[in-house]
Amino acid sequence: MHRGIAASPGIVIGKAFVLSQEDFCVKKRKVPDEDIEQEIARFQEALNITKQELISIRDKVNSRLGTKHASIFEAYLLVLEDPMLVGETIDRVKKEKINIEYAFNQTIAKFVNVFTTMGDEYLRERGRDIQDLGKRVLHILLGEKKQALTNLKQEAIIVANDLTPSDTVQMREEKILGFVTNMGGKTSHTAIMAQSLGIPAIVGLKDITTKIQSGDRVILDGYEGIVIINPTQATLDEYERRNKKYQEIQKQLHKLKDLPAITMDGREVELSANIEIPDEVEMVQRQGAKGIGLFRTEFIFLNRSDLPSEEEQTRIYRGIAKKMSPYSVIMRTVDLGGDKLIEQLGTTTETNPFLGLRAIRLCLKYPEMFKTQLRAILQASTSGNLKIMYPMISTVEEVRKANHILEGVKEDLKREHIDFDTHIEIGAMIETPSAALTADVIAKEVDFMSIGTNDLIQYSLAVDRGNEKVAYLYEPLHPAILRQIKHVTEAGHREGKWVGMCGEMAGEPELTLILLGMGLDEFSMGSGSIPKVKKIIRGSTMNQAKEMVNTILELPTVEAIRKFIKQNKVDIGE
Ligand code: PEP
Ligand code: MG
């Protein structure tokens, strides 16, 4: 039995399919004299294909974002034709009579080493560019598409070192029962995506790829974070039984679907859903969500080589607005960067991507992309009830700048006689400690705030949300987090603004009473959690919740808080 981090609930039993590590394994091969020219020709062809790819990306970036942003691709193209790089590789092949991919890999490694050990940050960055470029060419030489999750012959449980959110999003159409990975954390976007797609998953299993072989029979228990390899019949029977029990609980909870989330003493809050892809709307409605509290729009930008156009975005946003009407949909403007990287912008690799050019920072740096999205949201706003929310705010100036751009976009639309909701609400995500501590200032600039605890925890406690090695420190109940939530809620209310939460904490049934007691107005979560959270709210009173908060805020440690919560747990029949 192997224990990891339960990332997405559900029990599945099936055959394993182990994905190989993403890194290249470039083997050395001797090449006979008569084949040397052929090796060199393969190289020239790979360089040509890479060149065409880069030109095509450059042109797209050029037309969407301007020449400034396309210049990185010019630099890539120059490196690709660099006589030293090309010449040295060909010389190696001729002299050492070896295969081209090995020779090229050696040359690249040498160049990267020279650049990345230089004192100058600019030159170090160029070293990383050369590395990226090298990978592109090697992909072609090795004929290796990133090992595909597509084309699985039969239903399987994927076993991988790590999966990116864009890998995960591809899974919905494939025969994938669930996945387990060595790396990852509970609130990584890969885990969140798995929940949205209803794919059971366990992450942070450290070395599971060395324990499971393709074809092994595996039980994946996404509730408890347990993997069992080649189980006995008795264990299989036990898991079938547990599965039935969980399904029965779900059936009971489903009866609450159309009832309001109201406490026994009459405080009603809004339970809404987080979504990543438009197809999730039906699921959200089945769970009785009263709106979408977070639409992670950046997923529309992943797994493609261009940026989505204004028309495409308008069509998608309009579709969701219509389907959810009269309930509201909070359109979070793109939160790219961090673990959701796109090639289209040509941004270079960062040493600390979660602390780098991410979310609103990226949007303010690429205003044309931002404006296109705002235009699309505004146009779609006539078809339902849309709100706009900015991610990863860390200073009030960012809100002001974003609002300024938004005002400009509204003016443009008016000039063009294009209709939009002129009273559209604007919100800020509070997911950095600096935003939380200045929530009173930020609240003045917006209509609402929504607390993104996934990042707030990561940034407050200095714990990478996707790193299994420090997952034990990723603690929602840390007094520093609870105090910030209380502070933000009170600051918002003092300014007459509503305050929601769209981080994973909002969907944790053990925390529902505390968040209720702190005064949250809206809870937005993976839609699967809505029925349980609703059941707790309907079985509680505000007095009870407030008292709990008063006690908890006095407690000094996570351990004491956890114990108190356990003792005061609301029974929901599990
Ligand atoms: C959060 O950080 O809590 C949040 C909801 O945003 P995301 O998980 O997409 O970073
Ligand atoms: Mg976030």
Secondary structural class: alpha/beta
Bound molecules: phosphoenolpyruvate, magnesium ion
Radius of gyration: 26 Å
Uncertain residue ranges: none
Distance between the termini: 24 Å
Strand order of the largest sheet: 1-8-7-3-4-5-6-2
Largest sheet geometry: 8 strands, mixed
Total of helices:
22
In helices, the fraction of residues equals 40-55%
Strand content: 5-15%
- The best one-word shape is globular
Overall strand count: 16
Mean pLDDT: 90
Short account of what is shown:
This protein is of the alpha/beta class and 574 residues long. It has helices at residues 36-65, 67-80, 83-96, 100-116, 121-141, 165-169, 189-197, 208-211, 233-254, 281-286, 310-324, 360-365, 367-380, 396-415, 433-437, 439-443, 453-461, 479-494, 512-517, 530-538, 542-554, 558-567; strands at 2-3, 5-8, 11-18, 156-160, 176-181, 201-203, 217-221, 226-229, 270-275, 292-296, 328-332, 385-390, 425-430, 448-451, 498-501, 522-526.
